[in-house]
Amino acid sequence: MLQGRGDERATNVSVSGPPGAAGPVFLELGPRPDEKGQLVRPGAREAYPPDVHARLAADAAEIIARYGETSAAPEARSALLPLLHLVQAEDGYLTPAGIEFCATRLGLTGAEVTAVATFYSMYRRNPTGDYHVGVCTNSLCAIMGGDAIAAALEEHLGVGDGDTTGDGKITLERIECNAACDFAPVVMVNWEFFDNQTPDSARALVDGLAAGDEVTPTRGAPLCTFRETARILAGFPDTRPGALEAGGGAAGPTVVGLRIARELGMAAPVAAPLPEPAASPDETDRPLADAAQEPATSPTTLSPVLSRYWDDPRSWTLDTYRRHDGYRALDKALRMDPDQVIGTVKDSGLRGRGGAGFPTGTKWGFIPQTKEGGGPATKPHFLVVNADESEPGTCKDMPLILATPHALVEGVIIAAYAIRSSRAFIYLRGEVVPVLRRLQAAVAEAYDAGYLGRDILGSGYDLELVVHAGAGAYICGEETALLDSLEGRRGQPRLRPPFPAVAGLYASPTVVNNVESIASVPPIILRGPQWFRSMGSVESPGFTLYSLSGHVARPGQYEAPLGITLRELLEYSGGVREGHSLKFWTPGGSSTPLFTADHLDVPLDYEHVATAGSMLGTKALQIFDETTCVVRAVLRWTEFYEHESCGKCTPCREGTYWLVQILERLEAGNGTEADLEKLLDISDSILGKSFCALGDGAASPIMSSIKHFRDEYLAHFELGRCPFDPDRSTLDDAGDCSQVARNNTARGHI
Fold first, then answer.
1. 423 neighbors 430 (Cβ within 8 angstroms)
2. What pLDDT score was predicted for residue 748?
3. Spatial CA neighbour of 139 closest among 644, 732, 638, 744
4. Cα dihedral 480/482/485/487 (nearest 10)
5. What confidence score (pLDDT) does residue 328 get?
6. Domains of the chain
7. pLDDT the model gives residue 746
8. How far, CA to CA in Å, does 19 sit from each of 3, 15, 23, 590?
9. How far is it, in rounded angstroms, from Cα 726 to Cα 149?
10. What is the pLDDT of residue 649?
């Protein structure tokens, strides 16, 4: 037998027939239908009873109507992901009955539906307990205690990864990053947050679930069952009394930067500075790059703009948003010509906050507003917000939506108006139900207040906005993969050109923007581009959210002008945890080359970080101290990229697999020095040669970690084991300031 990789995408191939015998050779491809992980299982429902079918059909019609007027409309296939959530809500996992129901509703084959369903990790292929308990074991959570928590729960419950307890109550699974790194280690129950967990607290949590106690998440509503959660993901709001209010306002790490700014008397400018005296001819002749501001010699101040009222007890509501100038920018924008709105955003210099840093106004300007030969454009325009925040370490967009969803909604309306779009979508990752709950409520409030729908604020402008929950696939953060997913397909990147501005969603001109990018638009429209440019540098202007997580005293969100340094942010946050020192860190999430203590003074903007050899990315600053094994961290990130590879291109699909094999051998102490050269060789074969940037993200931490910590790699096989004690890097380690910070937060202190 030729054994496959051993994961859910593996194919087992066996050859039947005696050696040397003539005749046919039979190949058995894949696990048998009765093996774990298949959609056809003994006892699985083959068809729905008439009453269940009728109830689901009514719900399905409502779902399909969000995307197309009828199931025959080409846009109707976009309803496939929510329909799969719907049938999962019925059965607790995907059954042949559910697959056939979705196929019939959309005019697809069962094979087409199955091909999509098996691509996404949130669709269960086995019966799932009332409570799906997911332990984050991506690098940061794992190192801070996630691995220990997962092992403790597996022993305590007597089940393995992905298994369900005998009473059918709890399904335990090791999961990937859930955009809550500043609350690490994190456990998710039915995709609700349980923050800063330890093995003891996690055992108490599952004991409460097993006993039927009322268990309340750290952030979110009292738990409902796994099936009830799937219905929320299908787009049906949680109508339980108090569900929105549960969990209160933003939690400690989310508002830590805001509170520190207030303590220090720091704030964003309230108006644009007065014009400076005219420059001399010599100065005006300088190229823009040369005219960029040099790193400031005085400390950079925090500048809360998006986060300025996140600590309001009801920050997510429309009333609170209006008290803080909410929807004033929309009123102003609707009185402007759409091209003038685009020009204002261009003049501000706002760059995309999702990783690439592409100028937002320029992207909007790519949308063709007229057809060739004149006249209005014949194809509809679409705006899609990329809220699929899944990059390990990245945790800024989810707290933004959770705290102030109306900031995003207002930005969506302005952006859609600017590009002359009448339909917009927010593609939100599915694993964050508390965020989905509040976003759904904010959109409903906006409709009721006349900010969405027909004739917005009497302007004659119409806009429909759909919140679309994903189903667990990191690759859908790539904009063209996201568009394929939104169209009800497997989330795989498209060949470009054509670019989305020409042929995006439904082959029509489309703008795809990040959450923070869109939420930054209303302040720019309201206060003007010069106000925005008064912060940051010439080429990287404005404010942004920096997410500190890991071995730092006060992890959380820190809003500051672009160009602040990590040294300054660590001073504000209390530094690396007491008694420890900085070893390495990521400037923009796990896909960016690592930095060390030598890079503390690199200005965190697009140009300076690139010059120093990395990327600003999502400004996800994961901090690791000297107790951390860099090989362990890089292995875990590489396992993530191997798991999340869509499989479309050979360099990424095959390369990430072999990177994991070699890193596992090295981390266990069984490697050789030749393995390091092989790692670099494979990484070089992936970097810049894969279909999308996922391959680059897998190679970057490997290549940079060997550059900075080659001796540490060598020490593993010289000693025959990992030289680090994993317990020393966890949240439970004595003297850990993260534990102190958590206790202080509970008492109302920073």
1. no
2. 31
3. 638
4. -70
5. 98
6. 50-118 (1.10.10), 131-234 (3.40.30.10), 248-270+299-303+535-621 (3.10.20.600), 316-369+379-527 (3.40.50.11540), 630-723 (1.20.1440.230)
7. 34
8. 19, 10, 11, 49
9. 13
10. 93
Between CA 171 and CA 128 the distance in angstroms is: 6
Nearest one of 607, 589, 622, 609 to 700, comparing CA atoms: 589
Biggest CA–CA distance in the chain, Å, is 92
Over pLDDT 90: what percentage of the chain? 81
Cβ contacts of 248 within 8 Å, gap of 6 or more: 313
pLDDT in tens, 66-90: 998 766 677 999 999 999 999 999 9
The b-or-e profile of 493-518 (16+ CB within 10 A means b, else e) is bbeeeeebbbbbbbebbbbbbbbbbb
What DSSP letter does each residue of 501-556 carry, written as one string?
HHH-GGGS-EEEEEHHHHHTHHHHHHH-HHHHHTSB-SSSBSEEEEEEEESBSS-E
Choice between 534 and 245, residue whose per-residue pLDDT is larger: 534
Confidence tier at 558 by pLDDT (50, 70, 90): very high
DSSP 278: P
Give φ, ψ of 547 to 5 degrees: -105, 110
The C-alpha angle 279, 284, 290, rounded to 5 degrees, equals 115
Q: Within 10 Å of residue 362's Cβ, how many Cβ atoms?
A: 14
CB 37 within 8 Å of CB 124: no
Alpha carbons 676 and 297: distance in angstroms, whole number: 40
pLDDT at residue 707, rounded to an integer: 97
pLDDT at 181: 96
**Number of CB atoms found within 10 A of residue 224's CB:** 19
* Beta bridge partner(s), residue 132: 171
Strands, sheet with 464-469, edge to edge from the N-terminal-most edge strand: 464-469, 423-428, 382-387, 510-514
Q: Determine contact, residues 569/585, Cβ cutoff 8 Å.
A: no
Question: Measured between alpha carbons, how far is 539 from 359 in angstroms, rounded to an integer?
Answer: 10
Other Cβ atoms less than 10 A from the Cβ of 93: the count is 21
pLDDT digits (tens, 9 = 90+) for 610-630: 999 999 999 999 999 999 999
667-698 per-position pLDDT tens digit: 999 999 999 999 999 999 999 999 999 999 99
User: What is the average pLDDT across 424-449?
Assistant: 97
Side chain identity at residue 184, one-letter code? A
Q: Given the DSSP bridges, would you call strands 543-550 and 582-586 parallel, antiparallel or unpaired?
A: unpaired
What is the rounded radius of gyration, in angstroms, for the C-alpha atoms of the chain? 26
> Nearest Cα to 726, choosing from 642, 633, 634, 652?
633
Nearest to 391 by CA among 433, 429, 439: 429
Q: Which residue has the tokens 């991506």?
A: 138
Which of 216, 132, 218, 149 minimizes the C-alpha distance to 182? 218
